[in-house]
């Protein structure tokens, strides 16, 4: 019996070590660019971004496993998370939705002696109150940046819906509303856009839909987005993907719960379209597709969730972006698998000002730094973003 237990223990230990990928060698980010018109600026920018040229060292015990990085991001967020103080603004649109965004003023002056503002669009179901967003805000305001963060409609449980609608994967009008409001309040500021996950898809769509929107923006940064609404979610239907699909769906339903009456119970006065949401399908949903089919697709009149996802990505319009933009994804992201990396690679090789960085490790919005098992308070996400922004601001 003892030999069997010993063999079983060894096998389990071997599987555990393989899962943690402890013995994997760490490498530098893989950088993709056109090597043409942007090369001189690119060389200057990269020289000011050590995090893009150095080997990323995640916590050695667990940091090479994308599943654990993603799980810690999802459940813990950030270590020793700060509490930056901002001012909340709200605007009610003609279509009756009320958007809110928070503005955080710089703690220190920017070294350039000018105003610099970062416009942030967070990930799915997220707001300025999420730990990873708060950590980024704290990092940025202490470097002299003003930060404005869009709170996705429905993401704040204490902000009541004024219309039977919440955010969608690709809708840009709410972000556009925040941008217009902030730029009118601070007309002398320089502007940068940062998007995380779903928010990164939204900001790329925002910039690509109308080239005039790119005029006041110095540069943009995109983290962990899927680019194609269908291809990026295909992996969520098998293997580990099913687990992540279920967890994201449960989180989605959690943010819907405080707004259930406004979405499903209160009669709509919308004379244009009768919104026929499927309350039972959403209530019993265990996959994102069921929420998309029961709720999200109806906002814009799509016939199916497949049609909805086919048009909510940015892959078909990203080539319209002509400002400096840094696109980042990790190769071990269990939510956005590397199969879609051909999209940013293709764009960055054609664009004179596009740069795609494929990180070996980091999971989905994890990117923890540290030694052995304890992560640092800040992550590679904050470091790379601010290094890139500062580098571009210094050379534009």
From TrEMBL:
InterPro entries: AB_hydrolase_1, AB_hydrolase_4_sf, AB_hydrolase_fold, ABHD4
Gene3D superfamilies the record matches: alpha/beta hydrolase
GO biological process: acylglycerol catabolic process; medium-chain fatty acid biosynthetic process; medium-chain fatty acid catabolic process; sperm capacitation; steroid hormone receptor signaling pathway
Positions of the AB hydrolase-1 domain: 117-368
An MF annotation (GO) of this entry: monoacylglycerol lipase activity
Name of a matching Pfam family: Abhydrolase_1
Any single Gene Ontology cellular-component annotation: sperm flagellum
Residues at the catalytic site: 197 (charge relay system), 333 (charge relay system), 364 (charge relay system)
UniProt superkingdom: Eukaryota
UniProt family annotation: Belongs to the AB hydrolase superfamily. AB hydrolase 4 family.
Protein name (Swiss-Prot/TrEMBL): Monoacylglycerol lipase ABHD2-like
């Amino acid at each position: 019996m003892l030999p069997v237990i010993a063999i079983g223990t060894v096998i389990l230990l071997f599987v555990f070590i393989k899962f943690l990928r402890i013995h994997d060698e760490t490498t530098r980010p893989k950088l993709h660019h056109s090597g043409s018109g942007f090369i001189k600026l690119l060389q200057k920018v990269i020289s000011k971004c050590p995090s893009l040229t150095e080997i990323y060292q995640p916590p050695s015990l667990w940091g090479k496993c994308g599943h654990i990085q993603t799980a810690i991001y999802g459940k813990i967020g950030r270590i020793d998370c700060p509490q930056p103080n901002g001012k909340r603004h709200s605007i009610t649109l003609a279509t009756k939705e009320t958007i809110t965004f928070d503005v955080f003023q710089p703690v220190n002056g920017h070294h350039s002696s000018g105003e610099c503002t970062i416009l942030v669009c967070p990930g799915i179901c997220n707001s300025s109150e999420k730990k990873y967003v708060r950590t980024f805000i704290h990092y940025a305001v202490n470097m002299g940046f003003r930060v404005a963060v869009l709170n996705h409609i429905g993401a704040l449980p204490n902000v009541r819906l004024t219309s039977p609608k919440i955010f969608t994967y690709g809708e840009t009008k709410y972000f556009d509303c925040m941008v217009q409001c902030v730029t009118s309040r601070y007309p002398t500021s320089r502007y940068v856009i940062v998007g995380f996950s779903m928010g990164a898809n939204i900001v790329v769509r925002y910039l690509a839909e109308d080239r005039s929107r790119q005029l006041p923006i110095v540069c943009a940064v995109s983290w962990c987005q899927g680019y194609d609404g269908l291809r990026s979610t295909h992996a969520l239907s098998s293997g580990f993907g099913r687990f992540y699909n279920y967890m994201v769906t449960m989180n989605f339903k959690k943010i819907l719960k405080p707004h259930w009456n406004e979405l499903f119970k209160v009669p709509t006065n919308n004379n244009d379209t009768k919104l026929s949401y499927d309350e039972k399908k959403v209530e019993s949903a265990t996959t994102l597709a069921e929420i998309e089919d029961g709720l999200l697709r109806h906002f814009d009149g799509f016939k199916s969730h497949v049609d909805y996802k086919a048009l909510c990505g940015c892959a078909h319009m990203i080539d319209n972006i002509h400002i400096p933009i840094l696109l980042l994804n990790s190769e071990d992201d269990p939510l956005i698998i590397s199969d879609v990396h051909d999209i940013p690679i293709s764009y960055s090789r054609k664009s004179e000002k596009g740069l795609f960085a494929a990180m070996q490790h980091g999971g989905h919005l994890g990117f923890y730094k540290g030694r052995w098992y304890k992560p640092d308070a800040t992550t590679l996400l904050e470091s790379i973003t601010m290094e890139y922004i500062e580098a571009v601001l210094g050379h534009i």
